[in-house]
Structure formats: C-alpha cells, structure tokens
Amino acid sequence: MSRQAVVVAAIWLVLHGSSIARAQGGATPGERLVCTVDPPWLQFEVSGDGKRLAFVTRSGEKETVVLDGRPGKPYDRIDSDSLVFSADGRRFAYSATLGKKHVVVDDGVEGDPYDAVHARTLTFSPNGKRLAYVAMTGGAMRVVSDGKLEKPYDGIGPRLSFSPDGARLAYAAKAGKKELVVVDGVERKRFARIGATIVFSGDGKRVAYAAGIGKKWLMVVDGEEGRLYDAIGMPFLLSPDGKRAVYAAESGGKMVVVVDGKEGKRYDHIGKGNVALSPDGTRVAYAAMAHGKWHMIVDGEEREHDLFGDSTIVFSPDSKRVAYAAKSGGRWSVIVDGAEGKPHDVVINDSIVFSPDGAHVAYVAGASGRQFVVVDGREGPAFHGIARRSLVFNPDGRHAAYWATTSANLNEWLVVVDGKPGKRSGDVLIKSGDDRWFNAIDRGVRFDARGGFRHFVVRDKSIYVVEGRAD
Q1: Sign of CA dihedral 374, 379, 380, 381
Q2: How far apart are the C-alpha atoms of 118 and 86, rounded to whole Å?
Q3: What is the pTM of this model?
Q4: Is the pLDDT of residue 22 over 50?
C-alpha cells in the first residue's frame, strides 16, 4: 500500500468514528475528532455541521482531493480557494487543472473543460440543489449554470446571486462599454455601471440592484427605474413578499430614505448601515442627522440621541419589536421598543440579537476594558473580549451562547452557554499549506431544536467538534 493510501485510510477511520482513531486523537468526553492537519494539507474545508471533510494532497506532480476519506481523480493542480460545500453539507465541488484546461468536479462528476474557471465564483444555491460558476472559453467569460453555458460577455461578477429558494440566478455582466444584469439567462437594460450587489426578495419573485447613468445612480426594482441620485447607499432592502423596497440615497448634499419610491424627510446624513426593514416588510427604521443632532426614526416617529452605533437597528423575527444602540449623556444603552436600558461605557456594534420567538433580546456591552453579554437586562460574566457576531439564541429562545476569551491571548477562547463558561479550547485557528486559515469562531455555535449545541475547537493540529446540552 502506498504512503498516500495509508494516510487516506487513516483519515477515513477518523471521520467514521473508529475507536482506534478516537483513542489516538486526544478527544475528551463530548468531543469528536474531525481531522488532524499534520503535515499541513495544501487546502482543506469542513462542512458547516462538521460531518464532512475535504482536503488536497500532492503526490509527485499530481494533486488530489480527498473527500470523506476517499481520494478523487488526480489532477495537475487543484485550484486555490475552490473547495466548497453546499450550506447543508450534502454537496461538494471544486475546480481543477488538467493540462491546459480547467474543469469543475461536482459530487465527483467532472464537468466540461474550459480555458479557465474562476474558482472563487463556485456558488451553490441556498438549498444546495444548484451550482453555478464563471468560466472562460473562446476569449469570453460565461456563467455555467447546472452544467449549461450561458451567453458570453466581456466580464462577469463580482458574484453570482441565487434567490433564497434557489430557483433563480442573477449576475452582473459587461458587454463592450456597458454593464447589465442577467436574470435567469435573460438580459436586462444596459447601463454605464451596475452596483456590486444584486438582491432578491424573500419569495424570489423580485430582484433589485443599483445602476449608473453618467455620474448619477438609480435603483432598478424588477425593471422599474427609480429616481436619479448622486449616490445610492447600502444596504438596499426588499420585503420577503417583494412588495416593498427601501434604500438610502444622496442628492444635492442631503440624504433621504426612499420607501416604495417615495422620499422621506431630507437629512444631512443617514447612519452607516442603519436602515432596517422588518421581516414582514411593514416597518421601517433608520438613523439620521439634521443640524448636528441625531435622530432614530421608527415608523415615521423621531427620537433624538447624541450618537448611534453602526449597523445596530434590529427587528425581532415577528416584526413586533425593535432595538438599537444609542449614546446619550456620554453613555451607551440599548433601546428596546422605546424603553432605554441600563447605561454602559460601550455597546458593541452588530451585537444585538432577538430570540427566534422575539421574547428575549441580548447584546454585548463593555465597561472598564471588559466585555459582557446582557440578556433581557441581566449582565453575564465579564471577559477580556467576546467574539464579534458570535452571540446566538437556541430555537426556543431559552438559551444563549457565545465565544469569549479570558486573556489578551486571542488563541485562548471558550464557549459560554447561559453564562456558564465551558472548557478552554486552547486554540481556534489552524493553517493549511496554502496559508488559508480555519477559524473555529467563524463557524459559530449551533443549537438544535432539542437543546443540544455544537461548535468547533482546535488543539494539537487537530479540529474537533464539541457537542453538549444546555441545562
């Protein structure tokens, strides 16, 4: 048996829970060894649930992807940054070089050869049923959707956008000196420029994007053009049913929020990332400044504050509640449904979250150089730092979890569930041979409907999944 085959066999044992692999892996109770990255692989990727592993090995002049312990076909090169799992982890694809051609391998099936494949464009639909990417052939760029070539263009990108249900695909393209959006293979009107983001409504029926004419910009919603402005702000939002469109725009040195094509009051400035549309599409909130004073506008009603944090407006999933962070009198607080909470030295941007049922709200605050989580007004234990955007509720809202560190050493992190710190992970980062990093914190803490939770840790050049239950 070759050395590569021995390595592959060993990895297969690890992935399938062999008692030998568990004994040698150093896992503690509640942990499951996913893989050991030693020596470093050229690339590797782990599915979101931690159940599947893909990595790249080199033998002589050839490179091979090993998926779930089974080596695939050898290629001259596996393209960098091309390994991708679908969101549910059921499908896997990558691009590879064979001679002077490039191919995409989708669940082990090799696609047609092209002159080039733009590896970072490999995109699965949210439901994992479709795959699209950008290829170069005959001197032109073309989208390959479900194995079928679409029309050639001079340029495509920067990203491909599927509707939430995966039924529709849109992207920006360049044809000569003009740019356009292509939706389901059908070209829309050509403009001087197309913005970087294309948005579908929740039901997938409507699509919106920003387009440029001369030095001006306008919003296009399902082919209907809005008014020209000097600039269009981000984000622009569509309600789930596609009936409402909301965005910020600038004209003549003033800024305005546009709702369903109608301009609101003009302000000197609209807060960065501080325009929000409720999940049911019925409520709008945004932060704006006029004459040196900041205001929060919720459902058309203004409330004055000294300052707002960036991207802090959050509606509850049922759209009945709204929360945001604001500064008044030199201190920061979170305002929930108009009621101002306890003042803090700081409230971390992007940290406010509602439970799925909307009954509970939590956020990250700070005082005296320490950070802590506040759940329904009650402060949890203080830590040296809490990982950004790691705070989550479980499905029934009874439990909350987040990543925290107890020291200035950012490699020593632990998961806190309901205010109870877990075991220190020792490390959260591990690097592959192509200098890509696996970050356990970025993978988050995942709850299931029965109160169980899971997260990754890194220790001794190995990746583990930690599983437990909230009390």
Answers
A1: positive
A2: 18
A3: 0.86
A4: no
